[in-house]
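Run folding on both entries below.
>entry_1
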Amino acid sequence: MKAFIMLIIPILFGISDEDIQNTQRHEKISNRKKLKIAKQLVKDGSYHNAVLYYEDVHEDRPNNSHIIAALADLNYYLRDYKEAQKWYEELAGLDPKNYPVAQFHLGRMLKINGKYAEAKVEFKEFIDKYDDDDAARYKSLAKAEAAGCDYAIEAMEEPTTATVVHLENVNHKLTDFSPQYVSPTRLMYAALPSDTAINLNLARKGKKDYYARIFVAGTDGQTWEVGKQFQGPQNKEKMHAGNAILSDNGRVMYFTLCGEENAYGMICNIYESVLRDGDWTEPKKLDNINKEGFTTTHPAVGKDAEGKDVMYFSSNRKGTRGGMDLWYSVKDVSGKWSRPSNAGKAINTAGDDMTPFYDMKNQKLYFASTGHVGIGGIDIYYTEGNIDQWGEVMNMGVPINTSYDDQYLALDDDGELGYIVSNRPGVLSPRGETCCDDIFYIDISEEKNLFIKGYFTSRKDPERKPIEGVEAALYFIEGKQFSYVDEVVTSKDKMFYFQLQPGGSYKMNGTKEGYWPSITNVETPTDLEESDTIFKIFYIEPVVQKKIKVQQVYFAFDKSVIRDEYIERMDSLHSVMVRNMKYLLEIAGHTDSKGTDSYNQKLSERRARSCADYMLNLGVDDDRLLVKGFGEERPIAPNENPDGSDNPIGRAKNRRVEFKLLKDAADTEEVEIIYDDSPPSTIE
């Protein structure tokens, strides 16, 4: 995914909405015609639409390895790792002779999806069998990936004290990247101006602005404002701008401008602009640093042992050990940058090494890599020293790194507060949970932090084995109010982690199909002498015998009032709550896609609150109700038809409030809860 690494732009075009491009899918089109259309869509950068055609052909040609390879690669480019895993697994089993590297990619997808034991098996088999001309490079990568499987399990069991927080208002629905810490209240970064997925072919014809731009955003210390485009010549027309950094005095900006070479990539170069008399000068290409015909990007400025300015950057020029390497150039007394040198084999790998940042106070070089021992995808690392001598390369660990793509670390002058870029679940995303990158605020200072680790099991299991697939959701309790904190899906081979506040009260909810939802109280100690991790086993029991039926309610468009036809359902739910006093009720509001994200979030909360108020008016205690809204994030039906037209039936299904019954984990009564999602009575 080299184009993604260079500036993280081409991958965005793969998620173009079907309503932007008419794909003209039709069952009567021949497979040959479908393949021709699919290949053209790939050239246009419309990967999602290309996948649809390849899937159609695959139904008729299930054993065609070329089609399966295309589906595997396209889903990987779209960062739909679960789908990519499925197709790479099929390819590796069907045609290992023509696609021997499919097993390596399968291992990477398994690792990204958190299946470390299975991934390790694939990597070891690949190392033993692969003997093509590029075997040395691939075996080096596979060995690092296999070692990373063991490291990942250890890192997740012992997270660092770092905190990671998503920047809600700053991030767009598509990718945001290259954050730069300007001051405690100001951030500079890059993003696409559009908040809708892009069709590259139409965009290139001038029908949509799709060029990356440098943005700035501010905060009052509590809330971040929506970012605004940086006003200056750095945002050059018909070129992608990003990766901007400022000199110590804030008067020189180094940044990247990229021009497209073809549908698959671009060539990037580093420029500088100087602030003179309040205005920025026109961008000037740094000819001594850039290399004709190769990408030079991700500038970062540090100091050498003599105090001279050093520019670190990443490039795929000749002399690299992998796809992208870190390079550096030193500025002499005349202000001229020296001929670049490779940062060396201690840092660079057979993979991609990029997005450097130098912490001058602590003399640490941070960078991202796919070739060092890591947790999965792209990880962030650091090494101490300078260009004369580097120390051991260290992984930043969890939670800075995940099994997904984590990069672009940038810190303040003290090297404690800053930002990273990640596509971990929870980002704003128009397609899937990991398609796009967002900016996260981080704190890596040595503060005392408290974590809880544990797993769900059943009291009926004498061996107390972990149960896989439990949705574990954590709530913070303040008085009678419950605040949603975070949630994970449990694994059978590793424990889950949450960060807690000292002296706090929490509830841990566990839900899984076929099991009775459970809830457990967690109290944390007030005083911490050092960072600590609480270990706790949570219990969830299988559902049998007693049955309870719970039905969701639907709402009119843009309304939060309970319809008359659903009053009977609310009364039935109230009866359940009265007959079962140990139960808590989770009330979750949802909307269709009409309206803005912020408006739909508030509308979903009003719908949930309307149902909660109904329960309260009938005498259900407030501390038995957990109320939350999800806006338009969790549809249960398409809001639009495949051709991009409105789907009123689907939207009617999405305008709903869902209920979940929760009980104390200590209650072992065997009960089956049936959640009835019968469709709404009207689509109005």
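>entry_2
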Amino acid sequence: MVSDAETIKAKISELAETELQTKQLVTKINKLTSDLDRKQEDISSLNKDLDWYKSKFEVLKKEVGDEERKKVSEDKISNKNSDQTDKEYGTLESYVGV
């Protein structure tokens, strides 16, 4: 009978240790889950920031493209006017006699 009591006592002690380990694991899992949730929120926030920067980049790229097209167009007009002036009055080189 004594050995049965000791066996039962050992089993109870073993179950108590297992219960403690289980509680510790649950605590770790909850902490990791919480950390994961925070990381996912951080990633979501970074993705929103990235989307904002992408849209801003597209706007700036369009503005630069518009400016470049305007400049090229102005250069073409300027060159066309210069060519017309050269036809009418001659070039500066021909006027100076170079």
